[in-house]
Known about the structure:
Layout: H1 13-20, E1 25-29, H2 55-58, H3 62-79, H4 86-94, E2 98-101, H5 107-111, E3 116-118, E4 121-128, E5 134-136, H6 137-147, H7 151-154, H8 171-174, E6 189-193, H9 202-218, E7 221-225, H10 232-243, E8 248-251, E9 264-266, H11 270-280
Parallel strand pairs: 1-2, 1-7, 2-3, 7-8, 8-9
Antiparallel strand pairs: 4-5, 4-6
Amino acid sequence: xxxxxxxxxxxxxxxxxxxxxxxxLVLLTGAGMSTDSGIPDYRGPGSPxxxxxxxxxFVSGPQAKQRYWARSxxxxxxxKHADPNPGHHACARLDPTLLITQNVDGLHEAAGSxxxxxxxxxxxxxxxxxxxxxxxxxxxxxxxxxxxxGFSTRYADVAANPDGDVDLxxxxxxxxxxxxxxxxxxxxxxxxxxxxxxxVPKPRVERCYAAVEALADSGGALLVAGSSLTVxxxxxxxxxxxxxxxxxVIVNRGATRGDELATYKVDAGCSEFLGALASLQPQDSPAGx
Length: 289
């Protein structure tokens, strides 16, 4: 079997592609999926240690909210310009029974993926913690820019993080940052994403479990792309599939928490592997059914 990965592909790539081709698939993607779009990942080779703000810290007081929104204001200004990469487009062509993404960047949606669960939400949405009204992040971005003129220009060179913020740790840089309240009720605004310390909404989890369980009856497989599976919110689906005897293929640069459960572990780029798989998928494949 000849693939787009070429002759340099590591042992196991061809076997993994052969196992997956033509089967119903559930895809689980992580931050490594978006590195080719210019968004850094959390735990890939060479990635610095990062400690995202927890929900408990976010609601602890006004200073924490200033710190979060100052950093996020800069990060969102960059993330919103990211485009889907060839890996995202390959996922859309594969059209799996369900695509579960741990990413909040919205790039799978932009690439045209249909059956999709954004497990941790979308950074493009904002929710009020009091009245639960949701609104577009673009509207809040305009308010932040108006209330904090020149801020984004002043810190234009600060390094970006994968969850939509930047490395801006000196309190003097964000101490005077003005954070607006909800226009409906005056409550606290938060990005509509799952912070560390929060639970993924139950309906999302149930939909993902149902799709993974259906693989056992349909002869399908679970494909993980670009995730170290360090966080239980995604790793639990790998454990569930493996327990049911469903084949699991993990494609990731570096070791993952699920390697011992994988039928095949492939150390390769997501775009290359997914592109190769999409090129093998028959037109009448059951993968999208």
